Amino acid sequence: MEKISVVILTFNGEKYLEACLSQISKIGDEIIIVDSGSSDNTISIAKKFTDKIFFHEFENYGRQCRYAVSLTACKWVFVVDQDEILTDALVDEIKYLKLTGFDCDGYYIKRDNYLFGKLIKHGGWGDDYVLRLFNKEKGEHTDNNFSVVKTEGMTKKLKHSIKHYPYDSVHEYLSKMHSYANHSAKEMLSQNKTFKLRKLILNPFGRFFKKYILEFGFLDGLHGFVLAVFSYYFVFLKYLRFWELKRNEK
Q1: Are 133 and 31 within one domain?
Q2: According to the lineage, what is the superkingdom (predicted)?
Q3: What is the three-state SS of 25-72?
Q4: Taking the chain, what is the end-to-end CA distance rounded to the nearest angstrom?
Q5: Are residues 63 and 177 in the same domain?
Q6: Domain boundary residue, one of 144, 166, 188
Q7: Which of 5, 49, 202, 220 could form a disulfide with 74 if both were Cys (CB 3.0 to 4.6 A apart)?
Q8: Distance between CA 139 and CA 206 in Å, rounded?
Q9: pLDDT tens across 31-75, in order?
Q10: What is the rounded average pLDDT for all residues in the chain?
Q11: Count of domains forming the chain
Q12: Are residues 22 and 128 in the same domain?
């Protein structure tokens, strides 16, 4: 039977972590937790399921994942976020693969994304497949602030999904957005990109139009509109923060 190392990055994730770990422990032969300084009950919850808990200062998502994967013992790795919960159907599907053998080098898994408790079906959130289960000898995370795995081999999509609860309140959304925008701006600075005023002005509108019109966000009602507005704000904030960093360089 194939074995899987599970990797979870944590930071103040007590709300969904126990449910996340309860499900993932059904398919994981090893659970690696990499925390970046939680001040809530995250660590005490994690200790119920594993003793392999490490602290690592957060730089960006890709680097944090690469560090976590480097700690794993199994060839196959499953990366899951602290606010994601595997459905029972997905657990059974992965158990079957472990029993019969993996037939490719990586598997994309669909995420059912919830905003303020509502399942979002449009605006780019409805067809959200992420490469989370992979052979670490054939793939690794890219060096950026997003969950992107590049693999050399063949990939497939699994049939069943993960439930994802990234934002339960406006306050939580804005707090995370400021953090993500700051990390994105720092990456732009490290890549020696040039600040352009037209991008600060036009790109946020482009993002709103894409989310709300082109990706049919309006079909999700008020939640779809809010998601499009927040997407506008994120892009604006990213370029504004980048402008500030460039100005402080001088």
Answers
A1: yes
A2: Bacteria
A3: CCCCCEEEEEECCCCCCHHHHHCCCCCCEEECCCCCHHHHHHHHHHCC
A4: 58
A5: no
A6: 166
A7: 5
A8: 33
A9: 999 999 999 999 999 999 999 999 999 888 888 999 999 999 999
A10: 94
A11: 2
A12: yes
